[in-house]
Design goal:
The chain is α/β, with parallel strands linked by helices. The protein folds into 2 domains: about 140 residues, Rossmann fold, CATH 3.40.50; about 170 residues, Dihydrodipicolinate Reductase, domain 2. The chain is about 35% helix and about 20% strand. It binds nicotinamide-adenine-dinucleotide. Nicotinamide-adenine-dinucleotide binds next to helix 2.
C-alpha cells in the first residue's frame, strides 16, 4: 500500500469513530483509495459471493486475481476492470510481492491448499484472509499463524457470521443469559452433495468430508452463543454410500460438554438438508433456521421473532472489518487463532468418531 493511500484511509477510519458499517462510507472512499484484494481461486464462492461483495465494500476493492485457468483470467479482467498485470497463476503467484496495488490476498481454494497459499502470501508481505476451514489440521494452522507473525501481516479467517446481525444477537442472548443460562444447544448443517467428483469428497483435498466443510459453522454457532470452549466431546461417523464416500464420513454427529454445564448436539452431513441453531434454557429458547447459509438467516424465540435487516452479501461487513483492523493495526475478531480453535475441535471430533471414546480438551 502506498503511504498516501494508507494515510488517507487511516484518517477516514479514525474520523468515522472506527465504526465502519456497510454503506456508511461508500460515497466517501474513492475506488483507488481502498485496500486492494486479490482473490485466489475463482470458483463458486469467489464468483457468486466475494466478487459481488467487493463491488459494494467500503474499504476494499477487487484489485487482482490468481487462477490456474487463463480463460478465466481474461474474463475476470474484463468483467471487473482488473489490469492484466494484477492477474497471476499459481506458479507466478509469489511475484505479487512486487505489486503495490494488492494489500490483501484472499485464499478461496480447496482446503488442502489453504496453508500453502496463506504462507506464500505472508512471505510476499501481504495481509491474508483464508477461507474456512483454516487448514487441514492444527499443525498447518499453527504454521500459518507463525508465517503471518514473522512477516508482520494480519491474518483472518473468512468467518462472515461473526459480523451477521442474527448471529450477533444469538451471541448476545446466550452470553448475557437474557433467557437464562443455556442448558442445551443444537447446531447442525447439511446438504445433499450433487457432484460426486467434488474436491470436497476427496480426502486429500477436502480433509475429511462434511465435518471439515460444515463442522466449522456448527461449532462456531455453539461456542459463540455460549461464549465458552468445550472441555470434552463424543462423536459418531456414518457412511452409507461407500462408492462415493471413500475414506471419509458422509455424516458425522458430535456432542460437546461446556464448563457451564451446557451440552451441545450437532449433525454435519452431505446427504440431507439441515441448517439450524437452537438454544434452550429450560422453558425458554432462541434460535435460527436457516442459520448458516450465505443467503440469510431467520430467527425466532419463545418471546417472538428475531428479525434483522441484513445486506445481500454478509462478506461486505467481514472484509470491511478486516480492512479496518489492518489500518488500525488491531487484531481481527476472526483472526487466525479463531480458526485454530475450530481445527482443534474438529481434530478431536475425528478422533472421537474413529475411537468411539470421549475426548477431553484443554485450552
Ligand atoms: P469451488 O470448487 O467452487 O472452487 C475452488 C476453486 O479452486 C476453483 O476455481 C478451482 O479451479 C480452484 N482449484 C485450484 N486447484 C484445485 C484443485 N487441485 N482441485 C480443485 N479445485 C482447484 O469451491 P468453493 O465453493 O468456491 O470453495 C472454496 C473455499 O471456500 C473452500 O475452502 C470452502 O470451504 C470455502 N467456502 C466458504 C464459504 C463461506 O461461507 N465462508 C462458502 C463456500 C465456500
Amino acid at each position: 500500500m502506498t503511504h498516501s493511500r494508507r494515510a488517507f484511509i487511516q484518517k477516514l477510519s479514525a474520523g468515522a469513530g472506527g465504526i465502519l458499517l456497510s454503506g456508511q462510507l461508500k460515497s466517501q472512499v474513492k475506488e483507488d483509495r481502498k485496500l486492494g484484494v486479490a482473490l485466489v481461486g475463482l470458483g463458486n464462492y469467489s464468483t457468486n459471493q466475494l466478487a459481488p461483495a467487493l463491488l459494494q465494500s467500503n474499504l476494499c476493492r477487487l484489485a487482482g486475481i490468481v487462477t490456474g485457468t487463463p480463460e478465466k483470467a481474461e474474463k475476470w479482467c474484463k468483467q471487473y476492470n482488473i489490469p492484466k498485470e494484477n492477474a497471476y497463476n499459481y506458479q507466478n503467484f509469489d511475484e505479487i510481492r512486487n505489486n503495490p496495488a494488492i494489500d490483501i490476498v484472499y485464499v478461496v481454494l480447496p482446503n488442502a491448499m489453504h496453508a500453502e497459499f496463506t504462507i506464500r502470501a505472508a512471505n510476499a508481505g501481504k495481509h491474508v484472509i483464508c477461507e474456512k476451514p483454516m487448514a487441514l489440521n492444527v499443525k498447518e494452522g499453527e504454521a500459518m499463524i507463525k508465517a503471518c507473525q514473522t512477516a508482520k501481516v494480519h491474518l483472518s479467517i473468512g468467518y462472515r457470521l461473526y459480523f451477521e446481525p442474527h448471529h450477533l444477537e444469538m451471541r448476545r442472548l446466550g452470553m448475557e443469559k437474557v433467557y437464562g443460562g443455556v442448558k442445551m444447544i443444537e447446531s447442525s448443517l447439511g446438504f445433499q452433495m450433487a457432484d460426486p467428483q467434488s474436491w470436497r469428497l476427496n480426502k486429500a483435498l477436502g480433509g475429511g468430508g462434511a465435518v471439515m466443510d460444515l463442522g466449522v459453522y456448527c461449532i462456531q454457532g455453539i461456542r459463540r452463543t455460549l461464549g465458552e470452549l468445550p472441555t470434552a466431546l463424543t462423536a459418531q461417523g456414518y457412511v452409507r454410500d461407500e462408492a462415493i464416500f471413500k475414506g471419509i464420513y458422509e455424516m458425522m454427529m458430535f456432542q460437546m460438554e461446556f464448563p457451564s454445564g451446557a451440552i451441545s448436539n450437532s449433525t454435519t452431513t452431505y446427504t440431507s438438508y439441515i441448517d439450524r441453531l437452537y438454544a434452550t434454557t429450560g422453558y425458554r429458547w432462541f434460535g435460527l433456521e436457516p442459520s448458516y447459509n450465505a443467503t440469510g438467516a431467520k430467527g425466532n424465540s419463545s418471546a417472538g421473532e428475531l428479525t434483522f435487516k441484513t445486506p445481500l452479501f454478509q462478506q461486505i461487513a467481514q472484509m470491511d472489518n478486516f480492512a479496518d483492523c489492518i489500518l488500525k493495526n488491531q487484531k481481527s475478531v476472526a483472526a487466525g487463532e479463531e480458526g485454530l480453535i475450530d481445527l482443534k475441535i474438529i481434530e478431536a471430533i475425528k478422533r472421537a468418531a474413529d475411537t468411539g471414546k470421549k475426548v477431553k480438551l484443554s485450552w
